[in-house]
């Protein structure tokens, strides 16, 4: 059986820290909390679970704080969590099995990260390097959107999920940290060009975001998913700037990097739908439903694009073409994924009404 140190960095996390530590305290052998300047009762909450609480002066660099927390670990493997993460009971059972059965030659255990939980279901998932062999001395890099370089490691992709339940509103913190790098005349890495562009996009600074997305897209050797996400984000920016053709061409540009993914198919479908080219839209929405969701892929997966969204859009497009029977079938399939969705339920009532009346005139579906 392996031993595990839980390493966390926290600051003003009194709303969520108890929930996080309660979910994991029974399985780890050591809990290390590094506080970067809390002004609430975060430390008092942490003391319920551990005496290993340390202070770290915040220097606008998440990697430095995380590396300090890792340096304090004494067990065989290090598990890291954020304060607004939890591990559900079913995943605790899986983690216990890993703790008992893990081959000691494994350096890194990958775990799925479920984000933005709605109605008990994640809307987006991706894999992170969660459990790391301490003696390999892995380090964190980048001041924000930090990561561990584990190239060459012997990895194991587990079915354990970490669930992220964010409580804080989005701030400009990450954007300010990245801009501080420029102020200090520090050049960002290509990876951080992507994240800087994304922060600019999130804060509505579209023209500057375009520059850094393009700068990133002109690089090679970074994560494949980041190139595709750059194309998607750029497409959204051009849509917001009322440049639909450029938005569409940017979606097609993503196909230079990989086979079409469901979200790309759906965005292409949206373009054709908006232009009343419903047959073309149907082709791409239908393609999205036929693709196999890559459950073990390490990139981002937004789940709705693989089922709920394309079936909903297929229903609308088929209705627009007068294919009422197929529209009903698609709406019913979409309902299987979201049985309580108000629009789908209203559309089902609508379809039932027009079937009973056999009168398709002067009616319209919700979209």
From TrEMBL:
Q: Which UniProt keywords apply?
A: Coiled coil
Tell me the InterPro entries matching this sequence: Glyco_trans_2-like, Nucleotide-diphossugar_trans, TPR-like_helical_dom_sf, TPR_rpt
The chain's coiled-coil residues are: 161-188
What is the superkingdom listed in this entry's lineage? Bacteria
What Pfam families does the entry give? Glycos_transf_2, TPR_8
Which residues are in the Glycosyltransferase 2-like domain? 5-148
PANTHER family with a match to the protein in the record = GLYCOSYLTRANSFERASE, POLY-BETA-1,6-N-ACETYL-D-GLUCOSAMINE SYNTHASE
Q: What is this protein called?
A: Glycosyltransferase family 2 protein
Per the UniProt entry, what species is this protein from, by scientific name?
Vallitalea guaymasensis
